[in-house]
Write a structure and sequence with these properties.
Blueprint lengths: L5 E8 L5 E2 L3 H5 L10 H8 L3 E2 L13 H12 L4 H4 L4 E5 L10 H7 L8 E3 L7 H14 L5 E8 L2 H4 L2 H13 L7 H4 L8 E8 L9 E10 L8 E3 L1 E4 L2 E4 L5 H6 L5 E3 L1 H22 L9 E4 L7 H10 L13 H4 L6 H11 L8 E8 L4 E9 L1
Parallel strand pairs: 4-5, 4-6, 13-14
Antiparallel strand pairs: 1-7, 1-8, 2-3, 6-7, 8-15, 9-12, 10-11, 14-15
Helix pairs in contact: 3-5, 11-12
Length: 380
């Protein structure tokens, strides 16, 4: 007999003080000592008012990604050593690990010496990595393989967004032309991303006191078989195909900002909503969820620019959810990638917005190669 699976706790960790829009270049620096040409346009469209960085104004790191994830997990248990020792599965999603190897998850585990010798999972990916971690933990608890599973999503991208990442390329462009600004696909994400971590606790028993969130279903889909890469790092796109950093010389890596994060904005705009909502409609039909049964719709949006597009496509597909039922904290936490959905869940639980019996519908898109994860939670 399969277990029911509940989210019984949620917690977050945000590094340092919030950074307002007009302070961003104080932290990320000026590229080639020039003010950005695109910053104002991007910020006007994305709706983000503040974000958090795990660096100081000199670009020095204040926290690692793994450390932030461990601090969010500690906050789940108020740093209770005995509770930490009861975890028997740790699943950690991120798109920005501190190193290529060892895996992000075992580095988080290393920051939690009070835990036991446990199974640790690190799904690769981008925004969906946090949801893939959740699905693994969900299946493990459902099958009875794990009793207490902890899932985290975390990001630390500010260091790679720091101006020195782009400096050699900007210098080269300055020598070649009178327009030394780096391309928009490289600069765009500097004004979009935030650092931080969030975690949830999963178990087969709901809370005796307080609310729990039953995980009813989780569905995922990738469209990599149809569409070329859209967001990428450690590579360059040449005629629609990625050339990885290992095939560049060390000099080329710096000269072309290969380690920077790039976004094909045109490809993003044309595809991310279309495919994501089509598959959402299929997932809802498969799991017998009607749009009028949804009490809270939690879309992970990289930008408020997509809100209207999502709403229009949902109406077209017959799954429209009124705006008053949408919930997002993008404007106050920024886009924290794989952790964003957990920041939304944590805030809903913490602020007493939920009531028993309500249904939450989640959608997490990932533009890297157009992947999506959807899910339904019921308040218990």
């Amino acid at each position: 007999m399969l277990n029911e699976v509940y989210i019984t706790k949620a917690a977050t960790f945000l590094p340092n003080n919030p950074v307002a829009n007009d302070e961003m270049e104080d932290y990320l620096g000026l590229i080639h000592k020039r003010q950005s040409k695109s910053k104002r346009i991007v910020l006007r469209n994305n709706g983000i008012k503040q974000r958090f960085y795990a660096i100081d104004k000199k670009g020095n790191a204040t926290h690692t990604n793994a450390q932030m994830a461990s601090l969010a997990i500690r906050n789940l248990f108020n740093d209770d050593v005995s509770a930490l020792s009861e975890i028997d599965l740790l699943c950690c999603g991120t798109s920005s690990p501190d190193q290529i190897m060892p895996s992000h998850g075992v580095m988080v585990h290393g920051w939690l010496p009070e835990t036991k010798d446990i199974e640790v999972i690190t799904p690769a990916g981008n925004c969906c990595a946090g949801m893939h971690a959740l699905k693994y933990a969900f299946m493990s608890v459902k099958l009875g393989q794990s009793m207490n599973a902890v899932v985290s999503g975390s990001e630390r991208l500010s260091r790679i967004l720091y101006s020195e990442t782009y400096e050699e390329e900007a210098t080269r462009l300055d020598e070649m032309s009178d327009n030394p600004y780096i391309s928009f696909d490289k600069e765009f994400l500097r004004w979009m991303l935030s650092d931080g971590a969030a975690a949830v606790m999963l178990g087969s028993k709901k809370n005796e006191n307080g609310l729990s969130l039953r995980i009813d279903w989780l569905e995922g889909a990738s469209y990599a078989n149809r569409i070329e890469p859209c967001m990428y790092q450690g590579s360059e796109k040449i005629n629609g195909v990625l050339k990885g950093y290992m095939d560049f010389s060390q000099h080329e890596v710096m000269e072309h900002s290969v380690l920077s994060i790039k976004q094909d904005v045109k490809l993003l705009s044309e595809n991310v909503v279309k495919y994501g909502i089509d598959k959402l409609a299929e997932a809802m039909k498969k799991n017998n969820l009607r749009a009028d049964e949804v009490d809270f719709f939690l879309p992970h949006m990289s930008s408020e620019f997509f809100r209207k597009k999502i709403a229009e496509k949902m109406e077209m597909d017959g799954i429209s959810v009124p705006q008053e039922k949408w919930f997002s904290n993008l404007s106050t936490t920024g886009n924290v990638g794989s952790a964003s959905i957990y920041f939304m869940i944590e805030e809903l639980l913490r602020t007493n917005k939920l009531q028993k019996g309500q249904k939450l519908l989640m959608i997490v898109p990932e533009s890297a190669r157009f992947s999506y994860v959807y899910g339904q939670l019921t308040v218990c």
